[in-house]
From TrEMBL:
Entries under InterPro entries matching the protein: NA-bd_OB-fold, RNase_II/R
Transmembrane stretches, start-end: none
GO molecular function annotation: RNA binding; RNA nuclease activity
Top-level taxonomic group: Eukaryota
Protein name, per record: RNB domain-containing protein
The RNB domain, residue ranges: 4-198
Organism: Chrysotila carterae
Length: 216
C-alpha cells in the first residue's frame, strides 16, 4: 500500500522530530509532526549490531595506552564473524550511533521515571513466527516458531534503538495531542493484583523480566 515501507523507493510517511536533552527529555514546543517522503534502506537487527560492534572494536584498538589483548582479540573475532557489518556504510553507521545515543538516554529517562526496565533489565527473547503453505499439513499451513533476529546478538543494541524510538514517537504524539486537545484512540493495560514487583524482584534473569511484565 501507499504507507508500506518498501525498500529502495520513496514512500509516504509521518515524520516526528524532537530535540532530546542529555537526560532524555524533550519539549513539545520544539517538536514537529509533518507528512514526508522517505527513502527506505532496510537492515536486519544483526547487520546493525555488527556494524556498531565493529566500530566499537576499532575504537578499542586505536585507544591510547595498554589494552587488554584478550579483550581486543575477542572483540575482533566477534566483529569478523559477522560479515554483515561491511554492508553498512560509514554515513549510516554515524546515524545509527546517534540513534544509539538517543536510545540510551531515553532508556535512562524511563527508568528514572519508574519503568519496569529498572527492575528487570534483561529483555525477553524476540520470537519469529512464520506460516507458509505446504502440502501434507493438516490445514495446508506449516507454522514455524523460533528466535527472532533481534535475539542473536548479546548487546541487542538494534532492538533497544527500535524499542526506545517507538516509545518516544508514541509519547511525543500523545503529548502533542494532549496539549492541543486533539482526540486520539489509545490502548492501555490494566494493573494485575495477583503479582507484584516485589515478587518479580525475588527472581532472576528472564523469570524476573516475565514476572515484572505481568505486573503491568
Amino acid at each position: 500500500g501507499p504507507l508500506s515501507l518498501r525498500p529502495g523507493a520513496p514512500v509516504c510517511a509521518l515524520s516526528i522530530g524532537v530535540v532530546i536533552s542529555a537526560n532524555g527529555e524533550f519539549s513539545v514546543d520544539e517538536m514537529q509532526i509533518v507528512p514526508s517522503l522517505v527513502f527506505v534502506e532496510r537492515f536486519t537487527y544483526s547487520q546493525v549490531d555488527a556494524a556498531l560492534a565493529a566500530i566499537t572494536n576499532l575504537e578499542l584498538q586505536m585507544a591510547p595506552g595498554p589494552a587488554d589483548a584478550d579483550a581486543v582479540a575477542d572483540a575482533d573475532a566477534d566483529a569478523d564473524a559477522d560479515a554483515d557489518a561491511a554492508t553498512v556504510d560509514d554515513e549510516t553507521v554515524g546515524l545509527l550511533r546517534r540513534l544509539e545515543w538517543v536510545g540510551a538516554r531515553r532508556l535512562a529517562y524511563r527508568i528514572a521515571g519508574g519503568a519496569i526496565d529498572g527492575v528487570a533489565p534483561e529483555q525477553l527473547p524476540d520470537v519469529s513466527i512464520k506460516a507458509t503453505r505446504e502440502e501434507g499439513e493438516l490445514d495446508g499451513w506449516a507454522v514455524r516458531v523460533g528466535l527472532g533476529d533481534a535475539s542473536r546478538d548479546a548487546t541487542q543494541t538494534a532492538r533497544k534503538i527500535v524499542t526506545e524510538c517507538m516509545l518516544l514517537a508514541g509519547e511525543a504524539v500523545a503529548r502533542y495531542a494532549d496539549e492541543r486537545e486533539i482526540a486520539l484512540p489509545f490502548r492501555s493495560q490494566s494493573l494485575r493484583d495477583d503479582v507484584g514487583l516485589e515478587d518479580a524482584k525475588a527472581l532472576d534473569g528472564l523469570c524476573r523480566s516475565w514476572a515484572a511484565i505481568r505486573t503491568m
